[in-house]
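Researcher: Good morning. I'm working through a list of sequences from a screen, and I'd like to move beyond sequence-only analysis. For each chain I'm collecting a predicted structure so we can compare shapes side by side. This is the next one on the list. No need for commentary yet; just the structure.
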Amino acid sequence: MAEQAMTTEKRILMAMRKTLGSIVKDVTPSSSALKSPLTNETIENIRMCFGLIAAREQELAAEAGVEIKDRPHFTDEIVTDNVVSIGKITPIKK
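Model: Good morning. Structure tokens for this chain:
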């Protein structure tokens, strides 16, 4: 039952994040010359909500034993991982 509650909470958090993001996207002016219809206090409250959602998602991942390493990256970003095939490893001769 606890597993089902966690997945429900995860789904709720995802829905809240998507809905809040959509609201922000819808009310953001397309031109930088236009003023946002949101007050500075509302914008700060939205930031706090996103922060709380992210913190709870991290807590849920930690409780589930899942490490979150997802980070945004550019498609032309240089890959820093160096994967070596085990078949290419040769024993050291003495």
